[in-house]
Amino acid sequence: MRLIIDQGNSATKLHFATSNEIVETVVIESEEMLELVRSRIADNSFEAAIYSSVRREYDKRLINVMSRKIPHIVCMGRTTHLPIGIEYRTPDTLGHDRIAAAVGAWSLQPNKPLLVVDAGTAITYDMVSAKGKFMGGNIAAGIEMRLKALHEHTGRLPLVKSDGELPLLGYDTETALRAGALQGAAYELEGYINACEAENPGLLVFLTGGDAERLATIIKRTIFVDRNLVPKGLNRILEYNVEL
Q1: Which of 37-41, 150-154, 183-187 has the lowest mean pLDDT?
Q2: With CB atoms 3.0 to 4.6 Å apart as the test, which of 65, 141, 170, 228 could cross-link to 145 if both were Cys?
Q3: Domain 1-75 = CATH 3.30.420.40
Q4: Annotated catalytic, 97?
């Protein structure tokens, strides 16, 4: 069994995986991570673990606890070996989640041009070449962020939930805001697909993140929707480093 730790700003996802499958995912507050990991590794045998954090600062106590029970531990960082190349001009500023999603997509569909879209708090659009090179990408506001910004930066617009009726054109303020955020993000995504496809014939599109399914129902394109693209990528990175 392998342990995959994906630490966000407020919550952490613990994934338990085999060499080719995510078996279980637990979402917890970051403060609870140490005790949960301690209890899990005490009761189970793990061959390897990978630890990724958006904070770029790793909990030394957690690493010490894991090192007593797990023979191979990888902490994502600038010296981590990757199965794809990075052409980004500032690789040190490239988010671990973006790298992992790209690796996850490449591990599923190698030797093909890929557009990897992560629709979460922010929406990232990243291009991987057929030769396995991360070429770069863009970052845009996510759906919830768009709705929140419209509320906070205007005088009278309410804060609406992203769930609810979604007409093509809103028939009241609530549906106008929701459709503007969701339909706008969907049309943005289709625009990126069209532009990248024009330069990369045979392009495949991967969509992940919390709003992946919702966007997939709106756009009229064939895409791969995979909520586990990031942990799959981290699992492949772990395997790649253990193999070296």
Answers
A1: 37-41
A2: 141
A3: yes
A4: yes
Dihedral class, residue 157 (left if φ above 0, else alpha if ψ from -120 to 50, else beta): beta
Architecture (CATH level 2) of domain 81-244: 2-Layer Sandwich (3.30)
- This model's pTM is above 0.90: yes
Report the pLDDT value the prediction gives residue 156, as an integer from 0 to 100.
93
